[in-house]
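Protocol step 4 of 5: obtain the predicted structure for the target chain.
Materials: sequence only (see below). No template structures provided, no constraints applied. The aim of this step is simply to have a reference model before the mutagenesis design in step 5. Sequence pasted as it appears in the construct record:
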Amino acid sequence: MSKLASALVSGIIFGLGLTLSGMTNPDKVLAFLTLDRSWDATLIFVLISALITTAIGYAIVDKRSQPLCDSEFHKPGKTAIDGRLLGGAMLFGLGWGLAGYCPGPAIVGALTLDPRAWIFAAGLVAGMLAFEKLPSSATPQRDDA
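Step 4 output (structure tokens):
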């Protein structure tokens, strides 16, 4: 299977999983993220299954010399926890908590023409463009590191 076909099949499976689990419904996600009397704990099963799937995936990756549809694994080059990572993580969490969308479900939502997903996607693109323009030296460096 080619890289493009593999990516297409993986994307379709991922989108179906997001839809079936309720992750594309921002109201359900916000009900999970809001810890009050209306808390909806059903997405905890999505979290648990994602952790299990990731653990299995990494166990398989560690035993293989290369992926099935590419010549090499593309692991992150940076491993340091720095200001850019922490800032991005905070913005991600803030956006998810305010909108009820994260990037994958927003793409699925945009395909269903949900205007909330289009607004989120515009913010996502703006954030990615801002990240590309922000010099990596703009984050403070610790002298004692």
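Step 4 remarks: Residues 18 and 24 are 6 Å apart (CA to CA). The helical segments are 3-21, 26-33, 44-63, 83-99, 103-111, 115-133.
Proceed to step 5.
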